[in-house]
Amino acid sequence: MPVLKGFGSYADLPAEKINDKITRRVMAGEQGMIVWWDIKAGGHAAAHSHPHEQLVWMVTGRMDFRIGEQKMSMGPGDVAVIPGGVEHEGFFPEDTLVMDIFAPPRQDFLDGGPPPYMVPPKKD
Fold first, then answer.
1. Which ranges carry the Cupin type-2 domain (predicted)?
2. Domain housing 55
3. CATH code for the domain of 78
4. Cα separation of 4 and 93, whole Å?
5. How many helices (DSSP H) and strands (DSSP E) are in the chain?
6. What confidence tier does 118 reach under pLDDT thresholds 50, 70, 90?
């Protein structure tokens, strides 16, 4: 994913399929990044942490979210801040659109490919 300068369009951001339930669009500048997640019912972002501060804005749908020891069922209009290094996890009981802002930008997202915590375990 390239770092943008100047103007662009959400529609022009490539939709990257992460797994059968999760798709993302990424827009990054030099010091921050926005990620739009389109998550189908039954999606799961397993427990993980990263050094980036993360701001969350629920656009549509529902997310059962845990930040550290705190839990909340989030819906449209709800927001959250996840400090860098704090473990968090999300379950999606219905189709959801959520927007995350990361600072600084996540190089792993710029590189593309699914985050390990969003890859379903392989069945033997």
1. 36-95
2. 30-111
3. 2.60.120.10
4. 33
5. 1, 10
6. confident
